[in-house]
């Protein structure tokens, strides 16, 4: 469907007139012509109009776009299904014949299998190398970038984890970093701190945990994750209160039907010196 | 930054293309030339809106995540201002900030007639419980009229509903919750959308329990019990657990519900974000007062 005609439908459903819709973005005549397929408007103007009317970009999506990777990956992780991950991996290999390691989605699936289901896959060191290269090379990480960095924490030597920490801090260096991005970074930081403590570097682990920060209200899951790791590290350091708090947190997670997540947090950073 | 401090769409596209490790020629994929895309990304030329959406289809991300990512380039969206207001701990400072924001939205509505400014003002009044400006009925009318015309609720409408379920009549809330749940996306389920749906369900439960409408609360819980909560949405898990405790208490299971509520609050307090513990403890206290167990 022509996106102008679709915009007209959505505008009318919202009872917004042409002149209310345009504001200072373009003339009423220009929008009217666009809506009636008589002319085009620039992408810049169109996005401003769509945002002005709070319409989802998805409304203008071509039906030909294949199902995106992330929802399918998240479903496989949610269902703790190595079979779904393997099937996703198989599809990605078929799509990216020759060098699937250059594909971010393939790397994420492979790293997840290596970290969470090592018996189902052969360790692929090229994937780890490509993932690290990508994270160092790319200036702006999207959600997939943060997922990949977090998966790597349990799979690469500590020196590489330290390097990734610097890149995570670069991603969130702006004082205005949105909380959703801080939540992604804080998840990485929790796993990196736990990995450090598992390697016996308690003081480093505590320092890494202090790198987490909030701008507004943090996601409850991420806040709980940070506290959980804090307790694990303090328990390892011999803090007499930590064990009791950890028991209380485990009870809290079981109570709200999220006990499996707490178990996953503990397993997230086993460490693998092979790289 | 583009017009009125909006981020340049070409700059945004470049950022997302590189984040997906795609070269210019991989991204253009016969849609346009690599040279045109390069100029577009640098703000040296414009491309048609339809071409832009074809380029977006090349990126493997969901359009929801791309749209959210675009908004992170702004430094002053209304949503960001709301989140900032919520994070202010000094109540005097928060009130001053909210009233300024409210006055701005009302002035923009008077100037432009665009309904979103009015809806934003309603959102502020209800979310932050700003007294003495409009009644629930005065807010509910225009909100219901706005939502009635829309075939498919987008993220904006879902966000609006998360707040407005607190002031809409209970029967309308049930209908709108059902409508939101049945309005399934065509191609894939998105996490952000799921999160809004769970907030709507839980805020609706919060409202009907406060109105002591336990028949509707039971009905909403019956819907909820048949839906999967994504593993990473523990806010929804906590809310569901908490609402069940409130319902159990209402039906007379005082001792167990009270004990479990105390354990829940202890867990939330331990996490160290005061907002969450305060939010649930306040609601529990109100329940006890309504049930006649406390003054």
Written description of the protein model:
The complex is a heterodimer of chains A (275) and B (295). Among the domains of chain A are: 3-60, Orthogonal Bundle (434 Repressor (Amino-terminal Domain)), CATH 1.10.260; 162-267. Chain A has 15 helices and no strands. The N and C termini of chain A lie far apart (50 Å). Chain A is mainly α. Chain A is globular, with a radius of gyration of 23 Å. Chain B has 295 residues and is an all-alpha fold. Among the domains of chain B are: 3-61, 434 Repressor (Amino-terminal Domain); 148-290, Serine Threonine Protein Phosphatase 5, Tetratricopeptide repeat. Helix content of chain B is 71%, strand content 0%. Chain B has 16 helices and no strands. In chain B, helix 11 packs antiparallel against helix 12, helix 12 (191-210) runs antiparallel to helix 13 (214-225) and helix 13 (214-225) packs antiparallel against helix 14 (234-250). The longest helix of chain B is centred in the middle third of the chain and has 22 residues, at 91-112. The relative contact order of chain B is 0.05. At the A-B interface, helix 1, helix 4, helix 5, helix 9 and helix 11 of A face helix 1, helix 4, helix 5, helix 6 and helix 14 of B.
